[in-house]
Amino acid sequence: MHQKDLVTTLDWARQEGWNPGRDDARLFLSADPEGFLIADHEGAPAASISLVGVGPGHAFLGLFICRADLRGRGLAGPLWDAAMAQAQGRSVGLDGVVAQQGRYAAQGFRATHRTLRFAGIAPARSGGDEGRSEAIVAADLPAIRALDRQATGFDRPGFLSVWMQPRDGHVVHLIRDGTEAAAVGVLRACDVGWKIGPLLARSAEAARAVLHDLVALAQGDRIMIDVPDDQPDAAALARSLGLAPVFETARMWNGPPPPRGTGMEYGVATLELG
């Protein structure tokens, strides 16, 4: 899939209310340039799916969407089959909306936990919240990769090298602990407001500090964060900011899931790529 086709796919997602990030086409392709598939109908893009490698034994499936006016014509099934064949024996994960979880279960996927999207208006920083996090530098990437691998079980250096690169509309904050990353979080501009993710931390205190610093930058705008429900402190942090759950997905795997560090993932990078 070329970037222009991925832009088209994200336009479909936008129409469905997925609220993609403004730079997601470029960021997504960086994760796995060969991992995005598209089906044509009469010479025009009609349906898409992605299967992005997240380690030698695991891949993540997403962006499974068909153009609204072409649904029900049998375009999605062959595309699904092509993506699953591309897995080549790897375990495949996805974040499935409630309405589709039964279909995924029939394909051999099993839920490991739920992911809850919290959303609301970013509050002003309270007087006692002092900024502890800092913008990252290139030398921080190995420590961030190590934290990401421990928190998610994924090994995705190509994705992180771009996703963790600060620029206009894409803020990355970090708390260092010697040579380790104690916490890291990303705030990225979307069609509507901002999304926070990932938010990874070795403690709830560090997660809170990074989260509050990022939220302060979006003060008065709508913010969203996708929270794994097997990290109870994450939901509590979101609620402490006045955010409320607006929908949920299930993290599902066909095959053994990767080993995740207990309680270190406070916010998912993106539901499309894991």
From TrEMBL:
Entry-linked CDD domains: NAT_SF
Protein name as it appears in the record: GNAT family N-acetyltransferase
Keywords of the record: Transferase
Lineage: Bacteria, Pseudomonadati, Pseudomonadota, Alphaproteobacteria, Rhodobacterales
Domain (N-acetyltransferase): residue spans on this chain: 1-178
GO molecular function: acyltransferase activity, transferring groups other than amino-acyl groups
This protein's record includes keyword Transferase: yes
Keyword Amino-acid biosynthesis among UniProt keywords: no
SUPFAM superfamilies: Acyl-CoA N-acyltransferases (Nat) (SSF55729)
Top-rank lineage group of the source organism: Bacteria
